[in-house]
Amino acid sequence: MRSARLEITYDSADISAAIAPFVTGFEYTDHAHGKADDLQITLNDTDQRWKSVWYPAKGAKLTARIISEIDGSLTALDCGVFEIDEIESSGPPSRVTIKAASAAVSKSLRAEKKTVAWESITLAEIGVTLADSHGLTVYYGAEPVSFTRVDQREETDLSFLSRICDENGLNLKVADEKLVIFSGKDFEAKASSFTISRKSSGLERYRFTDKAHDIYRACEVSYQEPSEKIDKTYTFTPESGTEVGEVLKVNRRVESLADAQRVAKSELRKKNKNEVKGSLTLVGHTGLVAGLNITAADFGQYDGKYFIDEATHRYDRSSGGYTVGLTIHRELDY
User: Which of 91, 227, 292, 299 has most Cβ atoms within 10 angstroms of its Cβ?
Assistant: First the structure.
């Protein structure tokens, strides 16, 4: 027997039992990079209480936990802390949907655009400065990245930090009142946590794509050493990369050979990680979260290790089903 339920606190008060009869579905999406985790709870509102006396307050804090039961065995997934962002009423039948974003992503972090010139600074220091200004902490788990100057031009702090992480081959995760900056390559090098087989009874749907368009065999970056005035180029060609495709030429000059090497790898990785992608829908499993690696088996040419970019945990009372949908890409070794 399989079932799932949601444990919820609302402004620190446990309301799980009170709302349980009204919950018709929920959806929690966990992102590995660049986006805030989000939560949606759909509630039956035939007696109109959710539009009146139980109408939730925008900005109220929610904590969410998914409890899954399989044949009497319980597992849990702590989804984190969220802030109510939108309340939607629809019908018939009458229902209310509460939409919430990770509380780590304040409105100023994701909505207020700024123009700032950052000079003689590291990526870690930018992360600390931005985190402090929004009441967050930082975990930096990557090699140092330094800038003589980097410009934030009419960008929100979140979009700016996400962009410079992306440009340097790093991932940005925002959750649990923390900015987490980590190396996608390092995480993809970790061991696989699960094997998912095409023959597995828990697999409901799958889809893989293997594309040739916009995939590159090498990347070329221009640079100029501080002590020289001559433009040079560096070309990165991965040993395990595709043998077909064009050379990706990055349209910006960096300040040293070391910067060129880092940028060439990160730009090529950003393009080529979309070469082999997949989506899987499985019977709900609280252990499947973004940032983990899985092994795909019995899919022929698509077998191998994949990184989970996004995991969406869904429950629908009408079907009695708890499922998890995964968006994945094949591991790259550079």
Answer: 292
Residue 106 pLDDT grade (very low, low, confident, very high; cuts 50, 70, 90): low
**Of 40, 80, 87, 43, which Cα lies nearest the Cα of 63?**
80
Burial of 39 (0-12, 13-18, 19+ CB in 10 A): buried
Distance (Å, rounded) from C-alpha 327 to C-alpha 276?
11
Pairing of strands 293-297, 194-197: parallel
Q: How far apart are the first and last CA of the chain?
A: 43
- Residues 330 and 304: beta-carbon distance below 8 Å: yes
Q: Side chain identity at 317, as an amino acid letter?
A: R
d(CA 303, CA 47): 51
Region label for 137, one of left (φ > 0), alpha (ψ between -120 and 50) or beta (otherwise) = beta
Contact 257, 234 (CB under 8 A): yes
3-state helix, strand, coil in the chain (%, to 5): 20, 50, 30
pTM of the model: 0.89
Which residues, in sequence order, are bridge partners of residue 44? 95
pLDDT tens digits, one per residue of 31-71:
988 788 899 999 999 999 999 999 999 989 999 999 998 77
Q: How many residues does the chain have?
A: 334
Backbone angles phi, psi at 40, to 5 degrees: -130, 135
Q: 319: which residues sit within 8 A by CB, 6+ positions away?
A: none
Closest CA to 104 of 4, 25, 30, 185: 30
User: SS3 for 69?
Assistant: strand
State yes or no: pLDDT of 164 exceeds 70: yes
